[in-house]
C-alpha cells in the first residue's frame, strides 16, 4: 500500500507531481482558505506525511490522533505553528525551509522600509483615487534611508542579508541578537548593541527574530517609548513578538513616526484592527518569501524532505 501524504493547501501541480506515482497524495484544494481544523485532523489521522503552511496549527492534540505520522514539512522557515516538543516525543520528524528564502525576504524587508519611509503606498493610493491635484513642495515627504541608522533585532540569516543591503545605502547597522556575530562584525562593520541602546539610537528598527517563548511580546510600551520620535518600526518576523496595542498607541500619539508591518498576531488581520486605521502604518499580507523562484524552491525542499523520510533517508533541514 502506498504511503499517504496530506497537503494542507492547493500547491502548483509542478511542485506536487513528482510525488504522485510513488505515494497517495491528498490535498486541500483551496488556495485562499486554510483547511478547516476538523478536515485537517481527519486527514492527519491516516497520513504518513503532512505538508503544512505557517497558517496551520499543528499541535499535540492533532499529533495524538495521527498514529502513522512520520514527517511534518512546513512551507516556511518559521515553525512556531508546530508543537516541536510534541513532535519530538512522538518521533515525528519536522522540517522547514531555511536559506532559500533569505534574500527574497530581505528584499521585502528593505522594500517595506522604503515603502514606509517614503510613503509609497499612500502616494500610489492617492494617485489612483484621483487625488493627485498638483506637485506640492511638502506633499508626501518622508524619511531618508541613506545614511540613516538601522537597528536589526534578530541577526540570523535574513537579518544579515538586510544589513548587507543597508551598506549600499550608506546606513550604519546596529544589531541585537542572542549571540554575537563576531565574523559579520569584522567583515561588514555591523555593531552589536544592547536592546535599549539599539531602540534609542536607530532611525529604523527592524524585527527579524523568530517567535519563541523568549521573543513573544518582547517589544511593548516600554520599548516603543525608548524609540526616537522620528523612528520607523518594521516587522517582517511574527506579529506576536510585539504588543500590537502598545504599537498602536505609540503611532497614534506620534511617539514614533511610522510602522511597516508584513505580519500580525492574528492573520489574516481583521479589517477593524486599530492599526489599520492609522495613516502612518503601511501593511502587507505576510509576503516576505513571496517570489515565484523562492516559493518553488521552498516547495522543492518540503517535497524532498517528505520523500526522504518516507523512504527511510535523512532529510535536510531537520528540526526534530
Ligand atoms: C517564513 O517562512 O517563516 C516567513 O514568514 C514567510 O514569509
Q: What topology does this entry show?
A:
Elements: E1 4-7, H1 13-20, E2 24-27, H2 37-45, E3 49-52, H3 60-64, E4 71-74, H4 84-90, E5 93-95, H5 102-117, H6 120-128, E6 149-153, H7 157-167, E7 172-176, H8 182-188, E8 191-192, H9 195-201, E9 204-207, H10 221-226, E10 232-235, H11 244-252, E11 258-261, E12 281-283, H12 292-310
Helix pairs in contact: 1-12, 5-7
Task: Give a written overview of the molecule.
With 320 residues, the protein is of the alpha/beta class. It folds into two domains: 4-97 and 292-310, Rossmann fold, CATH 3.40.50.720; 102-283, 3-Layer(aba) Sandwich (Rossmann fold), CATH 3.40.50.720. 35% of the residues lie in helices and 14% in strands. It has helices at 13-20, 37-45, 60-64, 84-90, 102-117, 120-128, 157-167, 182-188, 195-201, 221-226, 244-252, 292-310; strands at 4-7, 24-27, 49-52, 71-74, 93-95, 149-153, 172-176, 191-192, 204-207, 232-235, 258-261, 281-283. The chain has a seven-stranded parallel β-sheet, sandwiched between helices. A five-stranded parallel β-sheet has the order 2-1-3-4-5, sandwiched between helices. Helix 1 (13-20) packs parallel to helix 12 (292-310). The longest helix is centred in the last third of the chain and has 19 residues, at 292-310. The radius of gyration is 21 Å and the shape is globular. The two termini are 27 Å apart. Bound molecules: (2R)-2,3-dihydroxypropanoic acid. (2R)-2,3-dihydroxypropanoic acid binds at residues 54, 76-78, 101, 105, 286, 288-289. Residues 54, 76-78, 101, 105, 286, 288-289 line the site of (2R)-2,3-dihydroxypropanoic acid.
Amino acid at each position: 500500500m502506498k504511503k499517504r501524504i496530506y497537503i494542507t493547501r492547493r500547491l502548483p501541480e509542478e511542485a506536487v507531481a513528482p510525488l504522485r506515482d510513488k505515494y497517495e497524495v491528498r490535498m486541500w484544494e483551496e488556495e485562499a482558505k486554510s483547511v478547516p481544523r476538523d478536515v485537517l485532523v481527519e486527514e492527519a489521522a491516516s497520513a504518513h506525511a503532512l505538508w503544512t503552511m505557517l497558517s496551520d496549527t499543528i499541535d499535540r492534540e492533532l499529533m495524538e490522533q495521527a498514529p502513522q505520522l512520520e514527517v511534518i514539512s512546513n512551507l516556511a522557515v518559521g515553525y512556531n505553528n508546530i508543537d516541536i516538543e510534541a513532535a519530538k516525543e512522538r518521533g515525528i520528524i519536522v522540517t522547514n525551509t531555511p536559506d532559500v528564502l533569505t534574500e527574497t525576504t530581505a528584499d521585502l524587508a528593505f522594500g517595506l522600509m522604503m515603502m514606509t519611509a517614503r510613503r509609497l503606498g499612500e502616494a500610489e493610493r492617492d494617485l489612483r483615487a484621483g487625488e493627485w491635484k498638483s506637485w506640492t513642495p511638502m506633499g508626501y515627504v518622508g524619511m531618508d534611508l541613506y545614511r540613516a541608522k538601522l537597528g536589526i533585532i534578530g541577526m540570523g540569516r535574513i537579518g544579515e542579508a538586510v544589513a548587507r543591503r543597508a551598506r549600499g545605502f550608506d546606513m550604519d547597522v546596529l544589531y541585537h541578537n542572542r549571540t554575537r556575530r563576531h565574523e559579520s562584525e569584522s567583515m561588514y562593520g555591523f555593531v552589536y548593541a544592547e536592546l535599549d541602546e539599539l531602540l534609542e539610537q536607530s532611525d529604523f528598527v527592524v524585527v527579524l527574530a523568530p517567535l519563541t517563548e523568549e521573543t513573544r511580546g518582547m517589544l511593548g510600551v516600554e520599548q516603543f517609548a525608548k524609540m526616537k520620535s522620528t523612528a520607523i518600526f518594521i516587522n517582517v518576523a511574527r506579529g506576536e513578538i510585539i504588543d500590537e496595542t502598545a504599537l498602536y498607541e505609540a503611532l497614534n500619539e506620534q511617539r514614533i513616526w511610522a510602522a511597516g508591518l508584513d505580519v500580525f498576531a492574528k492573520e489574516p488581520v481583521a479589517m477593524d484592527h486599530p492599526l489599520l486605521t492609522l495613516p502612518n502604518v503601511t501593511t502587507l499580507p505576510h509576503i516576505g518569501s513571496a517570489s515565484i523562484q523562492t516559493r518553488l524552491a521552498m516547495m522543492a525542499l518540503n517535497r524532498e524532505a517528505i520523500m526522504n523520510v518516507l523512504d527511510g533517508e535523512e532529510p535536510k533541514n531537520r528540526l526534530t
